[in-house]
C-alpha cells in the first residue's frame, strides 16, 4: 500500500466518525428542541440516591460478568492464568474499550500487553480476543432475537419498530441455534474419529535449514528458509522461530561481525475456509468451541446484555420506568448496536439519540431521559475508566519495579525508570480532562448568584475577559495534552501557563471554585514532573495522530453543541455578539466559541504549512563524513556499519549523534543504539520515532544494549531478547596456563605452515584490494552464499579502505600473500576492538579463523585496548521457567535442543574459551500482533531484499 493511500486510510475512519457524531448531535438537538439546559440538570439532580446505588451495584455485576468473557476465551485456547490476572486484565481492557471505543485497538491492545506477558502466544491472543468478540456478538444476536420474537406488536410500535421486523428475530435465533448445532456436530465428529480437540496453531510452522559451514563454523551468513503464513497474523511461536532464525544467522557470523544475522521469513497468503471443526481466515485457524463452551457463551452474553441494560433502566426517571423491561432492552440493544457501528468513541451522541428517540412514547420529557443518560455515562463508563487507569498505572509501576529487581537496572534507580514512562501519559490524560472541563464550563450557563456577587466587586470587563481566557485555556490544554504525552518541554511550560490562566479565569468568570480546585490539582502534579518532559521540539512539527485529532474534535463538538442547546431559546441577532451584561451567558458563549475555533484553526494552519516530512534517502558523502567524525569519538564500534552507505542517517541538531536505519515494509529499523554523546541519545531516538510516525511506520531498534532499555521503554516499545554478546577483557587474556593449551597448539600448528599475522593501516588497503577481492569471491563461492547487508558488512572497496586490516600471510615461492583477512573496528580511547568482514581463501590452513582470533586478541592487548567484542551468541541466557514468556521458553528450548538447525550451544561454548563477559542484546519494537511483520522486515533488510530472503 502506498504511503498516501495508507495515510488516507488512517484518516478515513476518524473522519467518518466525526461525520456520524455531528449527525447524531443534530438529530439529538431536534429531539430536545422544546427543552432547556436547566431541564437536563434538573433531571440529573432528581435521580434518587437509591437508584444511583442500584446502578453502581449493577455496574460492578456487569464488569464481573465481562470477566467471564475472558475466562471462557482462555479456556477456549486452553491456557491457564491466575484468576486475579484474568479479572484484572478483563476489567482494564473493557473499561478502556467501552470509553474510548475501537475495542480492537484499545481493549485489544491492553489484552496483548497483559496476556503476552503472562505467557500467551500472539496466535492464542488472537484466538482468545476473537472468541470474546464472538461472545459479545452472540449475546447481541440472541437477546435481539428474543426481544423481537417475544415483544408484543403493540409495544414494538411504541418504540417505532414495525411488526414486520419480527421475522428478523426468528432468523437471529435460528443463527444462534445453528451455532450451537455446529458445535454439537463438530464435537460428535471428533468423538467419532477418536480425536482430541486441541488448541489451534496457525497452519504454518517455519522450517529452519542450517547451511553447513567450514572451519570453526564462524561464517557470517546462514540461510534459513521458512514457510510462514500471513506475517500480520502469525503466531508468536512462528514469530519466535523467525526471530530465532534471525538470531541463528547472527550466530553464524558472530565471530566475523558482532551483529551478523541472516534469517528468512517468507509470508504466504492463506485462503479463508470453513470446515466442520474449524474456521480458517487469513492464516488463522479457529476451532469450533465445544458444546459446553458454546452454551456458556450464550448464557454469559445474555446475562451481560441484561445487566448492562439494567444499569440504565435503574437510572431512568419515573415516567420512563413505566416502559416494560423487555421493550427497554430492545431499545438499549439497538442503541448499542448503532454506537458500535458508528465507531464514535463510546458511541457518544449516537447512543443518546437512539435512546431518547425510542423512549419518547414512554418518557416525553426527553431532557430528564438525557439527564439519566449523563448519569449512566458517569456510572458505567467514566468511573470504571478512571479506576482502570489508576489500576493500570499501579500495575505498570510494579511491573517495572519487578524488572528493575530482576537486573535490568539497579534498584536505587527505580523512580527514575518508572516516572518517565508513567508520569507523562497520566498527566496527559489529566490535562486533557482539565481542558475539557474548562470548555464545558464556558459553554454552559453560569450560577447567576455567584456572578452577581462577583459583579458587585469586579468590573464587568474582568468577568468577560476571564470567561474568554478560560475557554482559550481549555482549548490549549486539550491540544497540549497530546504534546505532554510526547514529553515535550515546551508543552510543559505552556500547560503550566494555561492551567494558571484557567484557574484565575474560573474564579473571576463566575467563582467556579470547583473547576479551580480541579485545575490546581493538575497543576500541583505537573510542576514537580518537570524532568519527565525533556524533549526539545516544535509543537507544530510533532505528528498529530488521527486518534488525537478525533478526540479534540469530539470535545469541541460536544461543548459547542452544549452551548447551542443551552442557549437555543435566546433569539439570535447581530448585536448579541456585542452585548455585555452580568447575565449574558449566551453572548459570552458565542465569543468564546469563535475564539476557541479560531485558535484551533490557526494551530491547524501552522501544521498544514509546515515542511513535509523528508523521505529516507541514502547518505551523501557529506553525511558519511559527518558520521565518520562521530565514530572517531564513539566508544562502541558497531556504529561503523553506517559507513557502508546502505543505511539512511538521522543526525541530531548538533550533528554529534546519529541513528543509522533502514526501511522495509512499515518497519523503520535502527541498527543498534544511537551513536554519539549519551546526552543526545534521547533526542535523536525520539526524532527517529517521530519520522517513523510521520510516515505511518513502526519504530524498531535492532540489537540494543541493556544501558539504553529505559529509553526504549519510554518510547513505548516492547523488548525482545535476541541473545548475549561476548566481550573479552583483554587485560586478563593470554596464552599462558593449561586452559590455553589448545590455543597454543593451534597457533603453533598454523605458523609451522609458513603463516604469520600482521595488522596494516588503512592507507595500505588500496594496494591489497585485488587480493582481498579474490579471497572474498572464493569464500562466497565455497559457501554458496551471497552478500548480505544492513547489520552485516559486505565486500565494498570504499568501505574497507576506511579501516585497518588484519592479515594472515603465507610465504611461498612468490613471496607472501594473504590467505585470510578481517577489517578492524576501533573504539575511541582504545575502549573496544572488534572485527566485521572476516573471510579466508580455499587454500588457507585449517583453523585459520581461530588463529586469526587469537592473534587479534593478543594484538589488541598489546595496543592497550580494554575489550574485544566477539559478537553475539543467539538465544543464550534465556529462561525456561514455566512463568517465563513464551519467546524466552521457546528460545531456551531451541538453544538446548536445536542442534538439528544450528549449533547454538556449540557457538557459546566456543566463545567461552576466551573467558568473555556476557551482555544481553534486545530488539525494541511495537511488539504484539505486528511483531511477525517486524521480524520479516528485519530479515528483508539483512538479506538485501526479497531475493536475498529466498536465496542464500
TrEMBL record:
Chain residue ranges for the region called Disordered: 191-211
Membrane topology: Multi-pass membrane protein
Enzyme class, first EC level, given as a word: transferase
Keywords: Antibiotic resistance, Cell membrane, Lipid metabolism, Membrane, Transferase, Transmembrane, Transmembrane helix
Tagged with keyword Coiled coil: no
GO cellular component, one term: plasma membrane
Domain Phosphatidylglycerol lysyltransferase C-terminal as annotated: residue spans: 636-924
Reaction(s) the record says it catalyses: L-lysyl-tRNA(Lys) + a 1,2-diacyl-sn-glycero-3-phospho-(1'-sn-glycerol) = a 1,2-diacyl-sn-glycero-3-phospho-1'-(3'-O-L-lysyl)-sn-glycerol + tRNA(Lys)
Entry GO MF terms: phosphatidylglycerol lysyltransferase activity
GO biological process: one example: lipid metabolic process
InterPro entries attached to this UniProt entry: Acyl_CoA_acyltransferase, L-PG_synthase/AglD, LPG_synthase_C, PG_lysyltransferase
Subcellular location: Cell membrane
EC number: 2.3.2.3
Membrane spanning residue stretches: 12-32, 52-74, 86-105, 125-150, 157-182, 294-316, 323-346, 366-394, 422-445, 465-484, 491-511, 546-569, 589-609
Similarity-based family: Belongs to the LPG synthase family.
Name the UniProt record assigns to this protein: Phosphatidylglycerol lysyltransferase
Provenance organism: Gemmatirosa kalamazoonensis
Amino acid at each position: 500500500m502506498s504511503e498516501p493511500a495508507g495515510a488516507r486510510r488512517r484518516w478515513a475512519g476518524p473522519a467518518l466518525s466525526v461525520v456520524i457524531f455531528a449527525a447524531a448531535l443534530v438529530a439529538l438537538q431536534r429531539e430536545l428542541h422544546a427543552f432547556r439546559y436547566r431541564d437536563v440538570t434538573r433531571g440529573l439532580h432528581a435521580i434518587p440516591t437509591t437508584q444511583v446505588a442500584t446502578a453502581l451495584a449493577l455496574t460492578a455485576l456487569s464488569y464481573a460478568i465481562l470477566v467471564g468473557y475472558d475466562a471462557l476465551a482462555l479456556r477456549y485456547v486452553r491456557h491457564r492464568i491466575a484468576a486475579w490476572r484474568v479479572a484484572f486484565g478483563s476489567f482494564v481492557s473493557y473499561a478502556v474499550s467501552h470509553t474510548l471505543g475501537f475495542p480492537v485497538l484499545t481493549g485489544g491492545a491492553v489484552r496483548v500487553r497483559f496476556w503476552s506477558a503472562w505467557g500467551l502466544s500472539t496466535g492464542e491472543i488472537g484466538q482468545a480476543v476473537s472468541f470474546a468478540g464472538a461472545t459479545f456478538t452472540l449475546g447481541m444476536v440472541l437477546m435481539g432475537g428474543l426481544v423481537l420474537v417475544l415483544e408484543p406488536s403493540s409495544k414494538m410500535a411504541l418504540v417505532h419498530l414495525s411488526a414486520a421486523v419480527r421475522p428478523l428475530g426468528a432468523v437471529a435465533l435460528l443463527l444462534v441455534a445453528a451455532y450451537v448445532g455446529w458445535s454439537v456436530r463438530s464435537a460428535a465428529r471428533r468423538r467419532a474419529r477418536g480425536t482430541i480437540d486441541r488448541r489451534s496453531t496457525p497452519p504454518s510452522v517455519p522450517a529452519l535449514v542450517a547451511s553447513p559451514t567450514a572451519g570453526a563454523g564462524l561464517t557470517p551468513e546462514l540461510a534459513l528458509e521458512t514457510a510462514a503464513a500471513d506475517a500480520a497474523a502469525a503466531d508468536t511461536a512462528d514469530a519466535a522461530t523467525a526471530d530465532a532464525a534471525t538470531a541463528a544467522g547472527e550466530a553464524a557470523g558472530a565471530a566475523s561481525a558482532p551483529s551478523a544475522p541472516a534469517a528468512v521469513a517468507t509470508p504466504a497468503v492463506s485462503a479463508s475456509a470453513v470446515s466442520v471443526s474449524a474456521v480458517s481466515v487469513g492464516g488463522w485457524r479457529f476451532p469450533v468451541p465445544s458444546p459446553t463452551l458454546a452454551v456458556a457463551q450464550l448464557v454469559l452474553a445474555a446475562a451481560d446484555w441484561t445487566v448492562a441494560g439494567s444499569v440504565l433502566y435503574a437510572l431512568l426517571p419515573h415516567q420512563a420506568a413505566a416502559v416494560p423491561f423487555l421493550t427497554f432492552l430492545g431499545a438499549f440493544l439497538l442503541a448499542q448496536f448503532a454506537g458500535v457501528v458508528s465507531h464514535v468513541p463510546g458511541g457518544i451522541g449516537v447512543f443518546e439519540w437512539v435512546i431518547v428517540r425510542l423512549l419518547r412514547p414512554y418518557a416525553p420529557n426527553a431532557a430528564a431521559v438525557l439527564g439519566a443518560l449523563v448519569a449512566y455515562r458517569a456510572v458505567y463508563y467514566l468511573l470504571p475508566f478512571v479506576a482502570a487507569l489508576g489500576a493500570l498505572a499501579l500495575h505498570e509501576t510494579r511491573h517495572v519495579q519487578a524488572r528493575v529487581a530482576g537486573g535490568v537496572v539497579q534498584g536505587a534507580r527505580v523512580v527514575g525508570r518508572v516516572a518517565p514512562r508513567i508520569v507523562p501519559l497520566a498527566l496527559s490524560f489529566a490535562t486533557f480532562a482539565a481542558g475539557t472541563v474548562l470548555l464545558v464550563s464556558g459553554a454552559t450557563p453560569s450560577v447567576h448568584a455567584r456572578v452577581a456577587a462577583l459583579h458587585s466587586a469586579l468590573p464587568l470587563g474582568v468577568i468577560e475577559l476571564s470567561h474568554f481566557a478560560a475557554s482559550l485555556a481549555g482549548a490549549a490544554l486539550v491540544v497540549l495534552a497530546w504534546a505532554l504525552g510526547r514529553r515535550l518541554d515546551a508543552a510543559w511550560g505552556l500547560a503550566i501557563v494555561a492551567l494558571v490562566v484557567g484557574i484565575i479565569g474560573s474564579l473571576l468568570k463566575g467563582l467556579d471554585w470547583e473547576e479551580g480546585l480541579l485545575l490546581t490539582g493538575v497543576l500541583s502534579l505537573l510542576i514537580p514532573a518537570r524532568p519527565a518532559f525533556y524533549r526539545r521540539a516544535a509543537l507544530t512539527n510533532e505528528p498529530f495522530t488521527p486518534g488525537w485529532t478525533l478526540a479534540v474534535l469530539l470535545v469541541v463538538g460536544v461543548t459547542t453543541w452544549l452551548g447551542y442547546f443551552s442557549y437555543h431559546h435566546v433569539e439570535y441577532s447581530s448585536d448579541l455578539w456585542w452585548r455585555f451584561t452580568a447575565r449574558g451567558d449566551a453572548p459570552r458563549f458565542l465569543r468564546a466559541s469563535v475564539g476557541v475555533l479560531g485558535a484551533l484553526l490557526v494551530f491547524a494552519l501552522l501544521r498544514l504549512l509546515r515542511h513535509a516530512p523528508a523521505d529516507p534517502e541514502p547518505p551523501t558523502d557529506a553525511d558519511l563524513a559527518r558520521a565518520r567524525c562521530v565514530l572517531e569519538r564513539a566508544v562502541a564500534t558497531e556504529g561503523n556499519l553506517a559507513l557502508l552507505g546502505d543505511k539512511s542517517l538521522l543526525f541530531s541538531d548538533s550533528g554529534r549523534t546519529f541513528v543509522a536505519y533502514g526501511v522495509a515494509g512499515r518497519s523503520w529499523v535502527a541498527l543498534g543504539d544511537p551513536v554519539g554523546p549519551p546526552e543526545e541519545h534521547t533526542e535523536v531516538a525520539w526524532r527517529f520515532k517521530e519520522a517513523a510516525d510521520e510516515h505511518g511506520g513502526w519504530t524498531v531498534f535492532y540489537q540494543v544494549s541493556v544501558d539504553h532499555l529505559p529509553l526504549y521503554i519510554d518510547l513505548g516499545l516492547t523488548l525482545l531478547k535476541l541473545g548475549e554478546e561476548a566481550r573479552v577483557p583483554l587485560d586478563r587474556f593470554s596464552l599462558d596456563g593449561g586452559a590455553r593449551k589448545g590455543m597454543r597448539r593451534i597457533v603453533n600448528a598454523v605458523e609451522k605452515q609458513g603463516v604469520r599475522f600482521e595488522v596494516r593501516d588503512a592507507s595500505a588497503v588500496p594496494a591489497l584490494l585485488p587480493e582481498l577481492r579474490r579471497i572474498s569471491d572464493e569464500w562466497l563461492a565455497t559457501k554458496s552464499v551471497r552478500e548480505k547487508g544492513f547489520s552485516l558488512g559486505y565486500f565494498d572497496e570504499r568501505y574497507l579502505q576506511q579501516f585497518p586490516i588484519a592479515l594472515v600471510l603465507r610465504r611461498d615461492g612468490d613471496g607472501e600473500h594473504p590467505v585470510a583477512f578481517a577489517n578492524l573496528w576501533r573504539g575511541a580511547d582504545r575502549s573496544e576492538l572488534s572485527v566485521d568482514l572476516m573471510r579466508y581463501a580455499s587454500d588457507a590452513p585449517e583453523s585459520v579463523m581461530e588463529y586469526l582470533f587469537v592473534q587479534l586478541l593478543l594484538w589488541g592487548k598489546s595496543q592497550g585496548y580494554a575489550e574485544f567484542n566477539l559478537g553475539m551468541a543467539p538465544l543464550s541466557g534465556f529462561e525456561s521457567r514455566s512463568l517465563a514468556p513464551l519467546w524466552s521458553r521457546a528460545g531456551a528450548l531451541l538453544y538446548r535442543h536445536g542442534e538439528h538447525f544450528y549449533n547454538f550451544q556449540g557457538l557459546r561454548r566456543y566463545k567461552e574459551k576466551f573467558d568473555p563477559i556476557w551482555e544481553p542484546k534486545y530488539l525494541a519494537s511495537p511488539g504484539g500482533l505486528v511483531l511477525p511483520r517486524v521480524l520479516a522486515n528485519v530479515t528483508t533488510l539483512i538479506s538485501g531484499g526479497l531475493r536475498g530472503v529466498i536465496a542464500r
